[in-house]
Amino acid sequence: MSEISLPHKITHTAVLLLAHGAPTRLQDIPEYLKNIRGGRVSSPEVIQEITDRYEQIGGGSPLLDITRSQAAALQKLLNQDGDDFKVYLGMRAWAPFIQETVQQMVTDGVQRIVALCLAPQYSRWSTERYMKSFSDALAQSGLWDIEIQFVKSWPDQPRLIDAFVERYQAAADRLRAEGREDFHTLFTVHSIPSSSVEQEGDPYVQEYEKTL
Question: Hey, what domains does the chain have and what are their CATH numbers?
Answer without folding.
Answer: 13-151 (3.40.50.1400), 158-211 (no CATH)
